[in-house]
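[job 4471] stage=fold_predict status=RUNNING
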Amino acid sequence: MDTLLIRHADLLVTMDDDGLRIPDGGVYVADNAIEQVGPTRDLPTEADKIIDARGKIVLPGLINTHHHLYQTLTRAIPAAQNADLFHWLKTLYTIWAGMDSKAVYVSALVGLSEMMLSGATTVADHLYIFPNGVKLEDEIWAARELGVRFHPARGSMSLGESKGGLPPDSVVEDEDDILKDTQRVIEEHHEAERYGMVQIAVAPCSPFSVTPDLMRESAALARSYGVRLHTHLAETREEEEFCLEKFGKRPVAYVESLGWLGPDVWFAHGVHVNDEEIKLLAETRTGIAHCPGSNMRLASGIAPVRKYLDAGVPVGLAVDGSASNDSGHLLAEARLAMLLQRVSGNPAGLTAEEAIYLATRGSARVLGRDDIGYLAPGMAADIIAYDLDRLEYAGCLHDPLAALTFCTPQNVSFSVINGRVVIEDEEFVGFDPAPVIRQHNEIARKLVGG
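[job 4471] inference complete, writing structure tokens
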């Protein structure tokens, strides 16, 4: 049994049901699970590895509920910098069509390592384009290499332009092939057990890129294996107009008619919803991945997070794709979430603690996990710390937790995932990102130039 002791944290924030905060706190870990949480004086004094957390705030690892890792290859594309969602997609579909397995693998290494440095210990990713032999394994291998907890969603597009959809026909797949490959990756990679490091979701891309039949069949497949369902929904007014014109229903009513509501479903965005739809999402315990940065970047609108939370809708936090954000810093996203709920006039629209809650407990609930999201005995040992002794946090020690969202977001000092130290002294353990960045930039140049 390998043991790890984290001790003498200036402040340990558990995010448990009682909101426990422990000065001079620590955590004792055996293998991949937490055994004890409490004041340092009450913890064991010996372990195989000891981390002194003086000057730091320690909290549960952050959880990202929606991403498109491959999009790190197409950040800040000039032709898409000032576009709304549909025009942005039209610009980028043809570029993404040139990706291959190496591009997806290397972009996943870049995107995941960026997320980990920001504090993420669990990342959900939505890969929905599979050109040139690309497989979901291309990013699963990257996640396993880095040691991050991973929720890859096998996405899909089947409704091309010739059939009234948005994507060009060159990037859509046959629906039978989609379902067969989705079943394959579930059977080969899904780890349903507690502390599972890879959990597969079934994720047709959006109402404007797949058929109703594929939505229904995907739901049936997912539920036959007990895995979760995911898609984009109610992101823009244009999507609402598309659904009304093509299906005669608003987006939420449309997916409800297909059996796509329930505690095993989560949607990315959920910006354009009315009060009745919020009530329906709450009653069915359907989750929302809130993507404030992307919604601002693409001028999609402001998701009604305050209303969601007050109604009881499960809400988690997400960075969305790295070409619509164009960042993968989850702590920065928590800050945006807090500020964006205040911009309409309510200075308490979202508190600092609620923003961190979205990124931990809220996100864990959205992903259907009861083994991550807070620090307590029996929980997975996913633990992060930020150094408070730095210029950006000077003067913030009145409330170190609030400093994480009120002050300039920083990278983690250390990160532990599933009991393994993956970042220490703000550097990766056993992984050098420098050559990967060079390789990534070369792939990006060729992809965009081509």
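[job 4471] summary: The chain has 14 helices and 17 strands.
[job 4471] exit 0
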